[in-house]
Amino acid sequence: MRISGIFITFFCVSLFACKPQPADKKILPINTMKKIMWDMMQADEWYIQTSLKDSLHKRDKENIQLYEQIFSIHQTSRKQYYNSYHYYQMHPNELKELVDSLGTYAAREKAPQKAANPK
Predict the structure, then answer these.
(1) Where are the beta strands (DSSP E) in 27-110?
(2) Rounded to two decimals, what is the model's pTM?
(3) Where are the domains positioned within the chain?
(4) Are 88 and 98 in contact (CB under 8 A)?
């Protein structure tokens, strides 16, 4: 009886000590999310710059097409991305890790550009 009590206590402690994982295995990992988000930010920046130059606004909804291309490149779907995005919004610690990781990734991606174009 005493051994089973110790076993149950040990099991409960080890269960709660585990790092929480996404309940749905369809949630994209942070490494994948940061790359997709970076590409989406780049696409948004390009879209804004080109639509400012286009006085007739012929580029309506082109950013949606760009997003679809990004999802295709990263072999994911719109639904999976947005489900993952909502998951991270609901888990602040993991969202902070994602945003920090994205910031570091962005700095690394911009570094070669600054070295090539010094002002």
Answers:
(1) none
(2) 0.69
(3) 21-116
(4) yes
Three-point CA angle 118, 47, 96, nearest 5°: 75
CA–CA separation, 14 and 33 (whole Å): 29
Residue with tokens 């369809």: 26
Residue-level length of the chain: 119
pLDDT tens-digit readout, 23-57: 556 899 999 999 999 999 999 888 888 877 776 66
d(CA 48, CA 96): 27
* The two three-digit tokens of residue 58, written as one number: 């012929």
Q: Which two tokens stand for residue 19?
A: 């790092």
- What average pLDDT does the chain have? 79
Amino acid letter, 111: A
Q: Render the burial of 42-72: b for 16+ CB within 10 Å, e for the rest.
A: ebeeebeeeeeeeeeeeeeeebeebbeebbe
Percentage of the chain lying above the pLDDT 70 cut: 66
